[in-house]
Specification:
alpha+beta, Nucleotidyltransferase, domain 5
Length: 535
């Protein structure tokens, strides 16, 4: 089709409501994507934001949540008008997603009881250990139930007033539909899911309520947690009040069907066609996580491995590292200051591209350099706080190429430790797909990630589209109602023509990364010392 014909078809999709809108709340950016009937993004909008460390808690304010939602949608709607001359008044379906886990507790008057506690907080170590032992099931610190139990153990006054406990995606969905619903993937980061019933594990629900009772708290956990929905089901409709929350201009009409809200892990799986068994993906952003769809339960409980689900409720082994790109971004900001001070005009995208490419000229073992991009605690390596750290010996090969390479290698270090544990369980992986902004620069992140994972890494054309596109796909899947499973829908309709580009790591690259990893493990005591001494 010609460019004019494509544009005409896209405009008809918009006019006739054959579109899907996806909005995802990431750690540093809220992104909105409008998708047409061919699953292509026809308009986008975004809003940059940052979490705040307030009174020792990583949080986002409710005001910033709603401002970011409206601004990202407003930019998307403006792009629609500029490109097609149409005022966006309706879409075929909507989906919302956000950072998984965390703690948003509300009273019966729908008032937030304590500031939103995000996944980034490492304040629930006591709850994590006690719940993991009681359930014989790994309960990470960032899970909603760990936050709730820690609040109970801490005797926090707000616990008795909880009427509803949800995630950020669940909160947005609730406010825009009036429904206390959530997708199973996001729910699996709140409380363990029963693989047979596809909802909260009732034996563990009873066990938790007994633990709460021992602390003098009576809870009906099923009543305060959101209802669990599988991909493909409608989880609510946009209300009049919700339409105004999203679009204060009043142009957007109510009644639009909304799919189950999902976490960023689930949308990452969808956006990379990694929801079938024996497939996996690696998401690289502020945090990094590898998701492997399992064929069987794990034989043991590993604190480094989270058990979550796909949006269809299949079991997933998740290796989640709290820290990934934040320190790389900080160094890039410093380099941009240098270029500006010297009087050079260089866009951030250009700066990233040029400097990241230098990493390919570095030594496979990073030249003896070492870094930890720990802005927050890191559960996999046992750190309860973070201190970004860069160190090298006097005889190390300290140059720009190795400097860039070591920060990329370090960004994948904690995740590699977790994947080594999964390999002990003889987990089989047919494909491993990388996605995230770092893959906008061809080959660099993909090659170093392949060396770190000791496996081929595939990157698709949609690698940088991210979770907003993924949740838009889930909205499209709900709207399709064709009887296909989610993995069939993705493979046969969405990704049929996009097989991606796959890079195999060389023996030298893998051996070099293994040398770096030994240095990374040996240097953890330095990071511990930095946490203790740098207050």
């Amino acid at each position: 089709m010609s460019t004019e014909e494509v544009k005409a078809r896209e405009m008809l999709d918009i006019i006739d409501g054959r579109t899907s809108l996806g909005i995802e709340f990431g750690s540093t950016r809220i992104k909105a994507v409008l998708m047409d009937s061919t699953f292509s993004a026809v308009a986008t909008g975004s809003y940059e934001w940052e979490n705040q460390l307030e009174n020792g808690v990583w949080t986002y304010s409710l005001d910033s949540i709603w401002k970011g939602l409206r601004m990202s949608y407003r930019k998307l709607a403006s792009e629609v008008f500029e490109k097609y001359g149409e005022t966006l008044s309706s879409v075929g379906a909507i989906g919302f997603s956000a950072m998984m886990h965390g703690y948003m507790a509300f009273d019966a008057d729908k008032q937030l009881l304590v500031p939103f506690r995000t996944w980034r907080n490492s304040m629930t170590e006591e709850a994590e250990k006690k719940l993991t032992e009681r359930f014989s099931y790994n309960i990470p610190q960032r899970w909603s139930i760990a936050h709730l139990y820690q609040a109970i153990l801490n005797k926090e006054a707000h616990v008795g007033g909880i009427d509803y406990l949800t995630t950020l995606a669940g909160y947005i969905h609730w406010q825009l539909t009036g429904e206390r619903n959530i997708g199973v993937g996001d729910a699996s980061g709140m409380f363990p899911i029963d693989m047979e019933t596809k909802t909260y594990n009732q034996k563990m629900v009873a066990a938790f309520e007994q633990l709460a009772e021992q602390e003098g708290i009576t809870l009906d956990l099923d009543a305060i947690l959101p209802h669990v929905f599988l991909a493909g089901n409608e989880a609510g409709k946009l209300t009049q009040e919700g339409a105004y929350l999203l679009d204060p201009t009043g142009n957007l009409k109510p009644g639009i069907p909304i799919c189950p809200p999902e976490g960023d892990a689930g949308t990452g799986m969808v956006a990379t066609n990694s929801v079938a068994k024996r497939t996996g993906n690696v998401s690289v952003g502020t945090s990094a996580f590898a998701m492997i769809v399992l064929e069987k339960e794990l034989q043991a409980v590993y604190p480094e491995i989270d058990l979550v689900t796909t949006p269809s409720g299949d079991l997933v082994g998740m290796v989640h590292a709290n820290n990934c790109s934040s320190d790389i971004n900080a160094w890039m900001n410093l380099f941009q200051e240098v270029t500006e001070t010297l009087g050079f005009e260089l866009s951030k995208d250009r700066l990233f591209s040029v400097l990241l490419k230098e990493a390919l000229n570095g030594d496979s073992d990073c030249g003896g350099l070492l870094s930890y991009g720990y802005y927050s605690g890191e559960n996999i390596t046992g750190m309860n706080e973070g201190r970004p750290l860069f160190v090298h010996s006097p005889d190390s090969r300290f140059n720009l190429a190795n400097f860039m390479r070591v920060h990329l290698a370090s960004a994948f270090g904690a995740m590699r430790i977790g994947l080594d544990i999964l390999k002990q369980e003889d987990i089989q992986i047919d494909t491993l797909v990388g996605h995230g902004g770092i893959f906008k620069t061809p080959e660099v992140g993909q090659r170093i990630l392949a060396a770190a994972m000791r496996a081929p890494i595939t990157v698709m054309d949609t690698a940088s589209e991210g979770g907003a596109w993924g949740i838009a796909l889930l909205a499209s899947y709900m709207k399709a109602s064709s009887g296909e499973s989610l993995d069939e829908f993705l493979a046969q309709q969405v990704f049929k023509e996009d097989q991606g580009v796959t890079l195999e790591p060389t023996e030298d690259e893998m051996a070099g990364y293994d040398v770096f990893l030994k240095r990374y493990l040996a240097g953890l005591s330095i990071e511990n010392e930095a946490i203790e001494k740098l207050i």
